[in-house]
C-alpha cells in the first residue's frame, strides 16, 4: 500500500515536493496563461506522479514585473490566476489527494504597486510611510547620483530616483532586484508584523509551509556603505545586504508562528550562500526547517564533486538536526537536460548563457541518472515542473516575447530565465499542446517549440522508457521504501568515478559517472534502472536502485516483505 506523508507531522523531512510555476502549468481559461483552475484539473496527474507537496510560485495580485515576485497584495490571488476562494479549494482538494501546499512568500521587497509603496511616494521625504522602505537623498550636488554603489541582481544600479508629488526629482529608493520591486526595511516593526500576519493568513487557509524568497537578503546595513565588488568578501566581516546576523531573530519569530499550529507549518528558505556553515545557521532548531541546497544544484556532473557536495551537505546539516534538500532545477535555472548536455555542467547564477553547444541525448541520460541519485539521497527533494518530462531549455524565444527583467536589464547579455518557464506540453502534436483548451483566444504567453510533441505528458504516459515513467516509478518506490527520504546513508566501496551508497540494510543506489560500464554490487533485485544494464553492468551516465540482501554486522539480513 502506498503511504502518502499526509499524516506525518514532520513531513518536510523527507517529502518529494513539486514546484508549480502557475503561469506555465495549465491554462483552463484559454487566455494563454496558466491558472488555478488549470492546476485543479491536473491534480490527478500530480497525485499519479506521486509527489507529497506542491510549492506554488507567487500567485498573488501582481503587475508581473518579475513573474509575480513583485507582490501587490498577499491576500489576493491575481485575477489572471483565479480567486482566493479557488486557492482555498485547490489547497483542500490537493490535501484530499494526500498532497500538501507550500506558498511562496517574498519578504525582501514588494511591488511598486503595493499600497505601502504608493503611500510612501505620495507622503514625501522624511515621512513615516517612507520609513518602511529605503528612501535616501542622492549624492552629488543635486542629488543626481545614487546613494551608494550597490548593484541590482538583475543588472544595473540597485537604486532608482523617485519623483516627488510636484513632479520634481526626489529621493532614491533601494531595489536589489527590479525597480518595480522596492526593498522593505526590516528594521521597521510594521514590516515584521505584516509578514507574520501574512504567514498566519496562509497557514489559516491550510498552507502546510512557506518557501521564503531571497531569505538571506532582507536585512541591510543601515549605514548603506559602498560595497567592493571586485575583491573577495573578507571572512568574518558582515556583508552590507546578505546573510546578516540580524536575520536569525526574524526567522525565530516566524518559527514561533509556524509552531503555533497543531500541525506545525514548514519554513523553507531560498538561501544562496557559498559557505555551508553559514547556510546551516538558518536551520538551527528554532529557525527554518529546511533550505534549498544550491551548492548541490550548482555542482557539475562529476563524481568527486558530487560526492564532496553530498558529504558536505550531510555534515553541515547533522549538527543542527535539519534534513538536507536536493534540487536540480527551478524557475531561475537552465533546464537540467540542457545543462547536463554541455561541456560545462555546473550552474553559475551569474553566468546564465544560451547558444552553447548542447548534446540533449547525453543531457537527458544524465538527468535520468541524477533523478535516481537525488530521489535516493537522505532528506527532501524538489522537482520543478517539466523536469519529469525532460523538457529542455528553450533558447530561441524571440526577443520581443521575452519578459524576464534579467534579460531586459542586462541589455540582453544575460538571456534571462524565460527559457525554463515555457508553458508545459500536455498532449497533441503542435502548440499549445493542450496547455490551453481547444478554442483558446490567445497563444501561450511564451511560445512553445514546434518539436515538443514527443515530450508531452500524453506521449510519455505508458512509455516504459520515458522520463515521466521513470519519475513515476521512482517516486512510488521512494514512498514505499522505509529507508528512503529522511534518514542516514552510507557510502559503499565502488569503482573510480562511480557513486554507490546504501540507505538502510536493503537498499543501494549506484550512479556511474565514469566512461566505462561499471560492475554492480551484490544484489537480489534491480528495483529500478535508468535503462538496460547489459551483462549486469551499469553503463556510463546511468543509475540503478538495488535491493541488497547483504551482510550486516556479519549476519545475513532478510529482505523486507514486498508490498
Ligand atoms: C528569487 C526568485 C526569483 C526572483 C527573485 C526576486 O530568487 O526565485 O525568481 O526573481 O527572487 O524576487
UniProtKB/TrEMBL annotation:
Keywords: Glycosidase, Hydrolase. Residues 19-417 form the Glycosyl hydrolase family 13 catalytic domain. One of its GO terms (molecular function) is hydrolase activity, acting on glycosyl bonds. SMART domains: Aamy. Its EC number is 3.2.1.-. InterPro entries: GH (IPR017853), GH13_cat_dom (IPR006047), O16G_dom_2 (IPR045857). It is an enzyme of class 3 (hydrolase). Belongs to the glycosyl hydrolase 13 family. This is Glycoside hydrolase family 13 protein.
Amino acid at each position: 500500500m502506498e503511504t502518502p506523508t499526509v499524516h506525518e507531522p514532520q513531513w518536510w523531512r523527507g517529502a518529494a515536493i513539486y514546484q508549480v510555476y502557475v503561469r506555465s502549468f495549465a491554462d483552463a481559461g484559454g487566455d494563454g496563461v496558466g491558472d488555478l483552475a488549470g492546476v485543479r484539473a491536473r491534480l490527478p496527474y500530480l497525485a499519479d506522479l506521486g509527489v507529497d507537496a506542491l510549492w506554488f510560485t507567487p500567485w498573488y495580485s501582481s503587475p508581473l514585473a518579475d513573474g509575480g515576485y513583485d507582490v501587490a497584495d498577499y491576500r489576493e490571488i491575481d485575477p489572471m490566476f483565479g480567486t482566493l476562494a479557488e486557492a482555498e479549494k485547490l489547497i483542500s482538494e490537493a490535501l484530499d489527494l494526500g498532497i500538501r501546499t507550500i506558498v511562496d512568500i517574498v519578504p525582501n521587497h514588494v511591488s511598486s504597486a503595493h499600497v505601502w509603496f504608493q503611500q510612501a511616494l505620495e507622503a514625501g521625504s522624511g515621512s513615516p510611510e517612507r520609513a518602511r522602505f529605503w528612501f535616501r537623498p542622492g549624492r552629488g550636488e543635486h542629488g543626481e547620483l545614487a546613494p551608494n554603489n550597490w548593484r541590482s541582481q538583475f543588472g544595473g544600479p540597485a537604486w532608482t530616483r523617485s519623483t516627488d508629488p510636484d513632479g520634481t526629482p526626489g529621493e532614491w529608493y533601494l531595489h536589489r532586484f527590479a525597480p518595480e520591486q522596492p526593498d522593505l526595511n526590516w528594521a521597521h516593526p510594521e514590516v515584521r508584523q505584516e509578514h507574520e500576519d501574512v504567514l498566519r493568513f496562509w497557514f489559516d487557509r491550510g498552507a502546510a509551509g512557506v518557501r521564503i524568497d531571497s531569505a538571506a537578503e532582507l536585512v541591510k546595513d543601515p549605514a548603506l556603505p559602498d560595497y567592493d565588488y571586485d575583491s573577495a568578501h573578507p571572512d568574518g566581516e558582515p556583508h552590507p545586504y546578505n546573510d546578516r546576523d540580524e536575520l536569525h531573530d526574524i526567522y525565530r519569530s516566524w518559527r514561533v508562528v509556524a509552531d503555533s499550529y497543531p500541525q506545525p507549518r514548514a519554513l523553507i528558505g531560498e538561501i544562496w550562500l557559498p559557505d555551508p556553515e553559514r547556510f546551516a545557521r538558518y536551520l538551527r532548531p528554532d529557525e527554518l526547517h529546511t533550505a534549498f541546497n544550491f551548492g548541490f544544484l550548482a555542482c557539475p556532473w562529476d563524481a568527486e564533486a558530487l560526492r564532496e557536495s553530498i558529504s558536505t551537505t550531510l555534515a553541515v546539516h547533522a549538527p543542527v538536526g535539519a534534513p538536507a534538500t536536493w534540487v536540480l532545477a527551478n524557475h531561475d535555472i537552465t533546464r537540467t537536460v540542457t545543462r547536463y548536455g554541455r561541456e560545462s555542467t555546473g550552474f553559475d547564477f551569474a553566468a546564465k548563457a544560451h547558444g552553447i553547444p548542447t548534446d540533449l541525448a547525453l543531457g537527458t541520460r544524465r538527468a535520468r541518472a541524477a533523478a535516481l541519485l537525488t530521489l535516493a539521497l537522505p532528506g527532501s527533494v524538489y522537482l520543478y515542473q517539466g523536469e519529469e518530462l525532460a523538457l529542455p531549455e528553450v533558447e530561441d524565444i524571440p526577443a520581443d516575447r521575452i519578459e524576464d527583467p534579467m534579460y531586459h536589464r542586462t541589455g540582453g547579455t544575460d538571456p534571462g530565465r524565460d527559457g525554463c518557464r515555457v508553458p508545459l506540453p500536455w498532449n497533441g502534436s503542435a502548440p499549445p499542446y493542450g496547455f490551453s483548451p481547444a478554442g483558446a483566444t490567445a497563444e501561450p504567453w511564451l511560445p512553445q517549440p514546434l518539436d515538443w510533441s514527443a515530450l508531452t505528458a500524453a506521449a510519455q504516459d505508458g512509455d516504459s522508457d520515458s522520463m515521466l515513467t521513470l519519475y513515476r516509478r521512482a517516486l512510488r518506490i521512494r514512498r514505499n521504501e522505509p529507508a528512503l527520504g529522511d534518514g542516514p546513508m552510507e557510502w559503499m566501496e565502488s569503482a573510480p568515478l562511480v557513486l554507490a551508497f546504501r540507505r538502510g540494510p536493503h537498499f543501494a543506489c549506484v550512479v556511474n559517472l565514469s566512461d566505462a560500464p561499471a560492475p554492480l554490487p551484490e544484489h537480489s533485485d534491480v528495483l529500478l534502472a535508468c535503462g538496460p544494464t547489459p551483462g549486469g553492468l551499469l553503463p556510463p551516465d546511468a543509475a540503478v536502485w538495488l535491493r541488497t540482501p547483504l551482510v550486516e554486522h556479519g549476519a545475513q539480513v532478510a529482505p523486507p516483505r514486498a508490498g
